[in-house]
């Protein structure tokens, strides 16, 4: 069973160009199913029927969380179940299309309704507090500053920041070429403050982090290696703590702030979609809900009959 899962993951990597995070998520979810299947005497995908998939999902709904204490009553969220169903459906579509399995037994699995969580954005005051320059101007501090400024100025994803290379920067022209999900390329403008922070880092910070084996990645650790997403996020979390921002900052919050603040200041939704690299406008439309309070405030302030 594992060989077929690996074929699917190779397909995601080389043909679909899926992000590394997506590949790892699908691998973990499918491996969870194969482990369950083998415990129940299923050693071949052709022996798996819809009733087995349903039994597995029921087991997942009822099992305790891995890191929860024994007395905990917490169970998997509907979002986690959604991901497991999505992984199984994607795997079976691949296997059927490639004629690796005769039947798609997952096609009748229905996806649960996902609760739409509104993205949280930082306030203007919190952004100003976070982006204040940190002294002394060590290579690490200059690197952190450049990362934060670019993340907020251009709305890049965490993985995009990690993968960004020197040849993708065009600071004199004021833009950066970004390789996003599915290896789709987009051009994103970079603001003056972000350009200044990047230039300071490239001139006074990055040269001191370089080693003979350092790649062309823009942002480097103190060992001269590219950041892994988790490592980069820990660096940002530490910077947030030192800046005194008393909120639990999530990896996407700077990206959410970028989009929300653009919309609040009058940017067109289609433009924001292009800047964020969203394939569908429906993904970007979530930000129209975030700015509802702002719209009501403007209406009350300026409408003559409000």
Tags for this entry?
single chain; 306 residues; mainly alpha; three-stranded antiparallel sheet
Structure description:
This protein has 306 residues and is mainly alpha-helical. It is 55% helix and 4% strand. It is built from 14 helices and three strands. The chain has helices at residues 2-14, 20-39, 50-62, 78-97, 124-130, 139-154, 158-163, 192-209, 229-243, 253-264, 269-276, 281-284, 286-290, 292-302; strands spanning 169-170, 175-179, 185-189. Helix 6 (139-154) packs antiparallel against helix 8 and helix 6 (139-154) crosses helix 10. It is globular, with a radius of gyration of 23 Å. The mean pLDDT is 85.
Summarize the structure.
The protein is mainly α and 306 residues long.
């Amino acid at each position: 069973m594992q060989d077929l899962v690996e074929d699917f993951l190779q397909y995601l990597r080389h043909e679909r160009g899926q992000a590394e995070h997506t590949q790892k998520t699908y691998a973990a979810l499918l491996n969870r199913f194969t482990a369950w299947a083998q415990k129940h005497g299923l050693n071949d995908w052709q022996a798996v029927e819809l009733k087995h998939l349903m039994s597995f999902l029921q087991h997942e709904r009822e099992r305790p969380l891995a890191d929860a204490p024994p007395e905990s009553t917490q169970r998997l969220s509907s979002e986690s179940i959604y991901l497991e169903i999505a992984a199984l459906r994607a795997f079976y579509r691949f296997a059927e299309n490639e004629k690796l399995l005769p039947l798609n037994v997952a096609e009748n699995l229905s996806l649960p309704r996902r609760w739409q969580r509104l993205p949280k954005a930082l306030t203007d005051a919190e952004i100003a507090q976070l982006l204040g320059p940190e002294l002394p101007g060590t290579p690490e501090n200059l690197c952190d500053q450049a990362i934060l400024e670019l993340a907020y100025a251009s709305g890049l994803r965490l993985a995009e920041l990690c993968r960004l290379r020197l040849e993708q920067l065009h600071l004199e022209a004021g833009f950066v070429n970004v390789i996003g999900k599915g290896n789709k390329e987009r051009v994103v403008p970079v603001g003056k403050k972000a350009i200044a922070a990047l230039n300071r880092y490239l001139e006074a910070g990055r040269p001191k982090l370089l080693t003979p084996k350092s790649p062309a990645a823009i942002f480097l650790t103190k060992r001269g290696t590219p950041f892994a997403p988790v490592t980069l996020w820990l660096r940002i979390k530490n910077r947030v703590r030192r800046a005194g921002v008393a909120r639990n900052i999530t990896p996407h919050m700077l990206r959410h702030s970028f989009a929300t603040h653009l919309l609040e200041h009058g940017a067109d939704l289609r433009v924001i979609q292009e800047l964020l690299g969203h394939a569908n406008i429906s993904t970007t439309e979530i930000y129209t809900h975030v700015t509802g309070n702002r719209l009501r405030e403007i209406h009350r302030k300026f409408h003559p009959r409000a």
